[in-house]
Amino acid sequence: MALANTAFEAQRAAQVEGRKAELARIAAYLASAHSADIRSPLVVTGAAGSGKSTVLAEAAKRAAVAYPGAALLTRYCGVTPGTGSLSELLTDLRQAIARAYGQPEPAALPNLEELVAAFSVEQATLVAPPKRPLLLIVDAIDQLSAQPQRTDWLPPRLAPGVCVVVSVLAERRELAILCDRLPAEQVLTLAPLGLDAGRAILRHLLDVAPRRTLSGEQEDAVLVAFAVQGLPLYLRLAASEACRWRSFDPPQLGMAPLPETTEGLLEARLARLEAPGRHGQALVAHALGDLAAASFGLAEDELLDLLARDPTVRATLHELSPHSPPIDEQLPLPVALWARLHAEVEALLTEREMDGVRLASFYHQQLRAAVEARYLAGSAADAYHQALVGYFAEQPWQLGPRTWNWRKIRELLLQQEATGDRAGAEQTLSALVGTLQQAASDMDDHEGITTVDSIIAAVQDRIITGGYWRLGMDMFTLQLAIAREVGDRAMEGTTLNNLGALANNLGRTEEAARYYEQALVIHEEIGAVDKARVVRENLAELRGDSV
Questions:
Q1: pLDDT per residue over 502-530, tens digit each?
Q2: Are 124 and 41 in contact (CB under 8 A)?
C-alpha cells in the first residue's frame, strides 16, 4: 500500500501548477488540527480532470514534511489497495488508525450500518496527542462505486487533533449531501486553470523524454483549446497528440482542428487508432475493453494472453496482415503488435503494483469511463467479463508450493458477479474454501498459515456484502481454526463474532448466540473493551429478536 501511494503521489504531484491558493487552504486546515474551534471535514471538489488527485497528492507530500510526527494516512480510491468499496475503505482505515495509535485492532463489523456508525463516532471522539494529530486524506470517494455512496461516515464535527480531507466529483450526489451537512467554507472547489498554468503544465509534459518542443503556432493552438475548460487532464492528452507533430505540421487532428473537450479529444484519438491503416477497431477495442473490464487492471502478459485468445482480434489482424503468420491462441499475442498500440495509448494508462505484479490501468477515471461508454456499453460488457472469467477460471489457485495465484483470487469472483453468474461465483468460493482447507492442513508453520488467513481476509468483504452466508460459515470456521492454531486470541474473538453474524443471517439464532457468547468471553479476557461492547450489543439485539 505504501509503495502504491508513494508512486501515485510522485506521478501526480510532479505536475501541480496554478493551485497555490488551494494548497495553502488545505495546509491551513491541516495546521489547525488542535485548534479550539470545532472543525468539520474539508471537501475538495471540481469537474472531472480538474486535478483533484494532483492537489491532494501534493498536499499529502507537504504534510509529511511539515508534520513528521503526525499520523498521516492517505488513500487514493481506485489506486490504493483496499479501496474497492466503502466497506473495505472504512475497515482498512479503522485498522490503520488503531495501529497508528498503538490501540488494539478494532472489532470487525460485517454490517455496513454498524461500520459507518462506528467510524463516524471514532473520528468524533478520538483522543489524539498534540504532537501526533490524525491527518486523513481520502481521494476520489466517488470511485468507490458507480452508484452514490453513503457519506455519513464523515462526522460533521471532528475530535480535536483530527483532520479529514476528501475529494469528490462535482456532479456526484455525494457532494450535494456533504454540502447540506457541512459549513460552506469547508467545501473547496477547484476552478479552471488559467493560460499561464496551462502553459507551464504543457511544457512540463513535453519536457519528459523524449523531449519535444512545439512551434509558437502549435503551442497557441493547444492552449486556446485548453482554455475552453481549463482542465489539466485535457493537456495530458493534447500533449501526447502534439508530440506526433513535426515542426511544420498544422496543429490539428487529421484534417480537423483540436477538439476543445477531453471527451472530444479522446474520441478523436480512438477513432484515429481504430482506422484500418493504423491498428484496426478490434485490437483497440478489445485491448482497452479488457483493461476497463478488469477490476484492478491487467499485467501485460495477461492482456497479451486475452488478446490472442480472442477470435475477433485474431481474425481482424489476419485481414489487416494476410501474409503474416497466424496468431496462435495458445500463445500470447506477439508483443510487437501490442507495443505499437501501447506507444499510442500510453498517455491514457498508468501502472501500479499489486500483490507483487505490475498492473496497467487507466490514468484517470474519466478516461476509463469514456472507454467503457465506447466499448462496454449495454450487453457488450458481458463478453469482456466472460473472457476474463474464462481466463482466470482455467488457472490454478496455487502456482507452486506456497505460491498463491493472487490475481485469480482478486479477479475471478468479481468478474463472475459482473456477469450475474451467482452460481458460478458460489462454485468459485466453494473451490477456494476447499483449497484453503487442504493447504491449511498441510502447513505446520506460522508463516504459511498466516498466508491462508490473508487470503480469507482478501475475500471476506465479498462474502459479507455479497450474501454468501453458507460459504462464509465454512471460510470463517477455517479462519477460527487458524486463529486457534497460531494462538491469536484477538483474531479468534473477531472470527467468532463474524461467525455469529453469519449464523444470524442464516436464521440460526441459537448457533449465533453461542458464537457471540464465546467471542464475548475472549474479548473480556484480553481486555478488548470496544470489541466486547460490540459483541454485547449483537447478543442483546439477537436475544431481543428471539423473544
A1: 999 899 999 999 999 999 999 899 888 87
A2: no
